[in-house]
Amino acid sequence: MILGYKGNAYGGSKGTVILVRVCLLASGSRGNATLIEADGCRLLIDAGLSAREIDRRLGEIDLCADDLDAVLVTHEHHDHVTGIGPLARRHKTPVYIVPETAAAITRLGPIEDLRYFSAGDRFTLGNLQISSFSTTHDAVDPVGFVIDSAEGRVGYATDLGLSTRLVANCLERSRILVLESNHDEQMLLDGPYPWPLKQRIQGRLGHLSNRDAAGLLQLLAWDGLEAIFLAHLSDENNHPDLAHQEINQCLAANPGCNPQIFFGQQTQVSPSFFASASGPVSEG
Fold it and tell me: What is the C-alpha radius of gyration for the chain, rounded to an integer number of angstroms?
């Protein structure tokens, strides 16, 4: 079921009013972009695809790049920033970014509306309260985000080698979570990557394994959690079934928590999850 946008809410069948939507436009080592919409404000977290491809994938969920109110940037790695400059220039989109991250992006080019913040800062976008927090990754100053609206919290944390207490505290009581579940530990060890790359991925500045993601979720599970998007799954070192197995084991120990689980993919847009005042609604 695809619901049409109407003003500051979504109008669905039988009078359903949808106020929050989350969709992974792309997720993986070749490009990442996440659409979060709440209280009439449309945000893109990262733009790791070309501007044209981002616009095309937004079209698959009945939006276009002109509809975006802002882009939030987590860190400077290529798979998160490829399309930021062209997207911002073509569509006059404000870009929220840590100064050191902006300086580290090669060929970013001039952006008319570049809005700087520091890790730990909070700022307002429309009716939304955006909070940033530091993450552990091999980038200059990487961050995650929490988006608070009248309808609850969306938490976003990918590309982190370690799930710190700070990360867990910031993501508490999220209604929707986007969490990294990058690799299966055994698949990584047995896989084709050279040993230095394996060390980087499994290190404190690398990426969360399925087991680590489940450990973080153990701290975040509560009866108000309605959806989990597992992001940045490795094509070579992971499989959705393995990630799902770890998450299911975690949720089995938290019977009051029964979220829908979605998997980000590199080549196609994920299903959208819609949250309303009356409860969750998913697309399809």
Answer: 18
pLDDT of residue 250: 94
Q: Is the CATH code 3.60.15.10 the one for domain 4-276? A: yes
Q: How far is CA 156 from the centre of its chain?
A: 5
Q: What is the enclosing helix (H) or strand (E) of 169?
A: helix 165-171
Regions of the chain short of the pLDDT cut 70: 1-18, 278-284
Residues 67-102: b if buried by 16+ CB within 10 A, e if exposed: bbebbbbbbbbebbbbbbbbbbeebebbbbbbeebb
Gap between the terminal Cα atoms of the chain: 5
Give the pair of three-digit tokens for residue 75. Answer: 């860190």
Distances (CA, A) of 175 to 16, 37, 191, 221: 18, 13, 35, 10
Contacts 24+ apart (CB under 8 A), 189-197: 191/236, 191/237, 192/236, 193/236, 193/237
Instruction: Output the pLDDT for position 278.
Output: 61
What pLDDT score was predicted for residue 283? Answer: 60
Domain boundaries, the chain: 4-276
Contacts of 261 (CB under 8 A, 6+ apart): 227, 228, 230, 244, 247
Place of tokens 């429309």: 126
Q: Is-contact 52 58, C-beta < 8 A?
A: no
Residue owning tokens 């009248």:
150
Note the residue count of the chain.
284
Chain center to CA of 105 = 20
* 73: alpha, beta or left? (left if phi > 0; alpha if psi -120 to 50): beta
Tokens of 11: 């109008």
